[in-house]
Write a structure and sequence with these properties.
Elements (H helix, E strand, L loop, with lengths): L4 E5 L3 H15 L4 E5 L2 H10 L5 E5 L9 H9 L5 E5 L4 H9 L4 E4 L4 H12 L17 H11 L3 H11 L4 H8 L3 H15 L4 H9 L8
Parallel strand pairs: 1-2, 1-3, 3-4, 4-5
Helix pairs in contact: 1-5, 3-6, 7-9, 7-10, 8-9
């Protein structure tokens, strides 16, 4: 049996490979590491197995908008710690990671030893934040409200929402997800109710609250 089971969610194969090597070196060969290149792939692994020890999540993943992937995971799988990994290392990005429920933040520029220490610390039940994490403006009330709404969505509703915000019509979404148009309409109705919006434009604006760096 693996000592730890960790999901690595990043859309860059080279970085996933580097993480695999770093974690195998740091945690030992008995660690089980599984990769996901998109939010949909990540959700597939989580749906199959819900007791992962840790998710390492890249901030900018296909199928997510900024912190929406983190918010979705915290809403659906609150027992699984999530550590953000990103090349965006601004204080406000780190701070928003904390506010939206991450257990840590590892800058992609971190040395190997720092990455290994951060992961071990979170696996031991602690958190890990870079020194600059105390800086940065707090998350707005609007973003907190948007986060709460998004956290209440099911994975399928979340996928429908991202497609709505990309401008796809109900029939196009139905084709992409291999479901009926009536099913998509039902999802959209439920999504709007949970988010407290009435139009697709309002839903898109709400999703923008999850931007990694807030607009001024």
């Amino acid at each position: 049996m693996a000592a730890y089971e960790i999901l690595i969610a990043d859309d860059h194969p080279l970085f996933r490979s580097a993480l695999q090597q770093a974690l195998t070196l740091g945690l030992g060969p008995e660690v089980r590491l599984v990769e996901a290149a998109s939010i949909a792939e990540l959700e597939g692994h989580l749906a199959t197995k819900g007791d992962w020890d840790l998710v390492l999540l890249d901030l900018n993943m296909p199928g997510a908008y900024g912190f929406s992937g983190l918010v979705l995971l915290r809403g659906q799988y609150p027992h699984i710690p999530v550590v953000m990994i990103s090349a965006q290392e601004e204080a406000c990005v780190v701070n928003r990671s904390r506010e939206f429920g991450a257990s840590g933040f590892i800058p992609k520029s971190s040395p190997l030893e720092t990455l290994q220490q951060a992961v071990r610390q979170v696996l031991d039940g602690d958190t890990w934040w870079p020194a600059l994490a105390e800086e940065g403006a707090p998350v707005s009330e609007e973003a907190k409200a948007a986060s709460a709404g998004l956290a209440s969505l099911t994975p399928q509703q979340f996928r429908v929402l991202t497609m709505v915000c990309e401008g796809l019509l109900n029939k196009q979404i139905a084709y992409e997800l291999s479901v009926s148009e009536a099913t998509v309409k039902a999802h959209v109705t439920a999504i709007f109710r949970k988010l407290g919006v009435r139009t697709r434009t309002q839903a898109a604006l709400l999703l923008q609250q999850m931007e990694s760096i807030p607009t001024q």
